[in-house]
Amino acid sequence: MHRTLSESGSGDASLDAMQPRDAARESLVALLRVAYSAELAAYIAYLGHERSVRDPEEKLAIRRIGREELVHRREVGRMLAALGATPSARRERWMPWVGRLI
Ligand SMILES: [Fe+2]
Questions:
Q1: Residues 32, 75 contacting (CB under 8 angstroms)
Q2: Centroid of ligand 1 to alpha carbon of 78 (angstroms)
Q3: How far apart (Å, rounded) are the C-alpha atoms in residues 57 and 62?
Q4: How many Å lie between the centroid of ligand 1 and the Cα of residue 99?
């Protein structure tokens, strides 16, 4: 069956199928890059919170939670690598400051 250009979008069915996938991949990579750096900010924020409390048990609990952020960061980093992407160098530079301000 012959299809016209208006029936099939670009006229290339494989290209039509790839574009939404590429757009979805780019959106996912953008979100993961934010998440990767935000996990570092969260870790740094927990370090500051840990320093602000006196109770040893509370300090330990906060430290554990902070370390979980590093686990999350490692997992997000693996997802980025699996997608052939890298963290944002710019966001990696300023997110630690966000963590210090929280
Ligand atoms: Fe997290």
A1: no
A2: 14
A3: 9
A4: 13
What distance in angstroms lies between residue 40's CA and the mean position of ligand 1's atoms?
Answer: 9
Cα–ligand 1 centroid distance for 17 (angstroms)? 34
Q: Which residues contact 45 (CB under 8 A, 6 or more apart)?
A: 99, 100, 102
Burial per residue of 40-59, b for 16 or more beta-carbon CB atoms within 10 angstroms, e otherwise: bbbbbbbbebbeeeeeeeee
> What contacts 2, CB < 8 A, 6 or more positions away?
none
Residue linked to tokens 């590093």: 70
Cα of 43 to ligand 1 centre, how many Å? 8
For residue range 39-94, list pLDDT tens digits in order.
999 999 999 999 999 999 999 999 999 999 999 999 999 999 999 999 999 999 99
Task: Quick: pLDDT tens for 19-38.
Answer: 888 999 999 999 999 999 99
